[in-house]
């Protein structure tokens, strides 16, 4: 066996690469036996992966290497040393077992007056509140075992006190005594159930004592242990490793930002005064002898401000590290492996000054090299803009790299305070370019919670909220996107579109059934628009066809054909959801919850796919672990779903060393401790004031936060974040990139960055001149398509060339001009086509010449019932009611009121009206509107009782033919008229006809008059009956010819005219407001085609077509003035309904 001498070796360096090279060199010079594994301890998956990659790069392979967490390794070492019978696999005083033991003990403790602080919180017996308290207490007791084991020993021995770092004992205050009492109850409970009261502290002391007594381990310990890259460790862990060094070779590779003794450059230094210090004094000056006010003259301000956590750790190490003895005994040539960096960039200068503990030279600022962009700041308006800017900047960095200074995406890390809200933004920005696009950057997002990315877990978590869910249509549709969920129902992905269409059409909105709404406290909404309501309509429609009523169910007639079988899986889904809604609402014991959970998985998920099987295994493992924990804690009480859900699923979010960190592309991750892996480019996003350093307030009852109780090594979220900032600064090798939302997205008001970013900027401004800081800072426009990105000489850049094209003036050449429009001789113009053209000439051009349809984005499924009818919905409902008009004559014995009431009841049963009394009111209002219209229509039909044959009309203008049928004709003596029943209001508020509602009537009159047919038009609307006369044949020919000519021009290019805006213009109203809108109304120019061609009224009004002077005013007068004049003329007779003023 190759000899490996025991000892405690601590290596210090400001560069992780130097530590890696030193450790690997040592391992090569002092190898273990073949197949004997090397044991590495790391504190993060990032360090673990980086280390494995380094080992593989050196030897071509990384094998026989065990990588573990320090805590897990030491617990295993305790068992190896003391015996497995004395060290359980899971201690009953670990956090999770302790939580459930406290869940059982807390109610029994409330009778003790010492627990008065808890009595009010737990008085109502709420199990969820008790579980929350138990979880917080278990976490605090777990921290006490690591950082305050002497407190727990004192409490176990009835000494109700707190020991400070200097050994001074302070009596517990009356409101604090309950914690000591609770700890005593825990120990008593463990003895009562014949379990060893062996917490981490007791086992740790036994382990240390056994090693000091030179006892032989029960099973062999590893001969060498390397703790790599740790920047923070509890004193208990360091003590265990130091004791282990009496039998093993223990190597600690410690990243230390400064090569000089720097423990005395901040407050709290008196706690750390020890006789031995590892590092030398800078310029032989003892900083401890200086006042805190003088320290800024002799220390580095960044190190002093950000380095508390590292300071405490290095000083704790000094208690166990004897560098002189170690070097002599193990013949180590170099323990401090600090590298002399000769670089001259700003980033390298800052890192060197931290390493050398150099104070800030305010009187002699260093000039910043021209073009130095090693530290850059970017100010955006939002997180979305930050990621968009980052993408462009990374492309620029990658493009600037060459053979001498190569840069690959895998050498870039992007860290944010919380990756969860950034993840969808990152995907949206970085996924917009496919692999074949030169702007594609590979990336990987890590640190995402499994419950946020795994479709099966997302669906399961939704199901475990079932009793409180409204079961909206969109939510269930999202569940069906989970393949495992869908397969269990027997549905394919291709079936989802049809299922969604049917469900929405059948009126499904939310709620499973009436009883489900009762459970939610919404029973007054009854059963309309529930899943049961919709499925009953679908089944009835399939069985009996459309237009059938069965009780209060109106059939939905769209179900049929081979796809009808899809209703079966939907019905099974409803049954299962309704069943589990009831079951999950009931409290249950842990044994019963285990059975329920497994049945939920069986009922809702098919794990035939490999990824789903792995998820199922993880869920089963978490269930088994939780049940074992409850069983060992003797917890058998019934608990609600809320407690079980979190207890089960939170175990799946626990981080592990197996998570991917370095995947080959840009790494996006959360800023977390112990991640000081070196990268060429380190980017920090979201560095906003208030977001970083992150807030993590201690619980009020956490005694570690009490006055005079701070100890070196204590964890603090804010101190962690400060040291993380220092680590990020020191781990960047080429560029440090920092961005934040420095402008308000609404009012452009300035917003401050994180205080740490502000300190770095102040440091640079003081040491390298304020002008230098300005060159490092870029403030970006609000939008990615801003014209500033494309200005000559501007310092903004973007690779989104699509936006450049949008700003480039259109160059009209023969290549991009449309060929002349040649109409199809076999296809004649119709009235409907001319009406569509007049309604929106620009949209007509896009649709019929370019074949482009600007459909609105696909709307989400309707999740909510109707609370009222908007204008379009009301128009549609009235149109449905008016469809009974033919029955007025087919069944003359039935009055219009009866027919309308029946049709309105059918509409209400179909679920398109509001619920309950709101629906009744809406139905009655629709009936009140439709009945007078039908009665007027019946009266008109009686007056015009003789039907006339339809007439074919044909008008020729040059090469164009307008041809259509004049139908709906009736005769009265010698008069001829067409009758039309319209669901619209035909008049404006001033009782004059609305020109935009008369387009079809106008074109029909023009065509009839031009063809010599004298005919009236009679329109019956909601508010009036209009009787219209045509114009003279000569005038009609002129108007129709002008309209056809304009149509021809409009097929060649978008005409600068819009219907409503033009009518406002010719009626001497405000066309700008009509086009652009106002606070009270939407503008016509918001229509996609109009907005694409003429974004505002100025563009519409200033555009000239061709070489003529044909602009907006020309086309408004040519196309719409004759219509407006006709509407205002005596050619239209108005007969207002008596109740017009009452109608909405």
Q: Key features?
A:
single chain, 1144 residues, alpha/beta, Rossmann fold, Arc Repressor Mutant, subunit A, 6 domains, six-stranded mixed sheet, 26 strands
Model description:
With 1144 residues, this protein is an alpha/beta fold. It folds into six domains: 180 residues, Rossmann fold (3-Layer(aba) Sandwich); 103 residues, Arc Repressor Mutant, subunit A (Orthogonal Bundle), CATH 1.10.10.160; 172 residues, Rossmann fold; 203 residues, PCRA, domain 4 (Orthogonal Bundle), CATH 1.10.486.10; 216 residues, no CATH class; 73 residues, no CATH class. The protein is 44% helix and 11% strand. A seven-stranded parallel β-sheet has the order 10-13-9-14-15-8-16. Strands 17-20-21-22-23-26 form a six-stranded mixed β-sheet, sandwiched between helices. A five-stranded parallel β-sheet has the order 1-7-6-2-3, with helices on both faces. β11 and β12 form a beta hairpin. α6 crosses α7 and α34 packs across α36. It is elongated and about 125 Å long. About 1% of the residues have low confidence.
Please outline what is shown here.
The protein has 1144 residues and is an alpha/beta fold. The chain folds into 6 domains: 180 residues, Rossmann fold (3-Layer(aba) Sandwich); 103 residues, Arc Repressor Mutant, subunit A (Orthogonal Bundle), CATH 1.10.10; 172 residues, 3-Layer(aba) Sandwich (Rossmann fold); 203 residues, PCRA, domain 4, CATH 1.10.486.10; 216 residues, no CATH class; 73 residues, no CATH class.
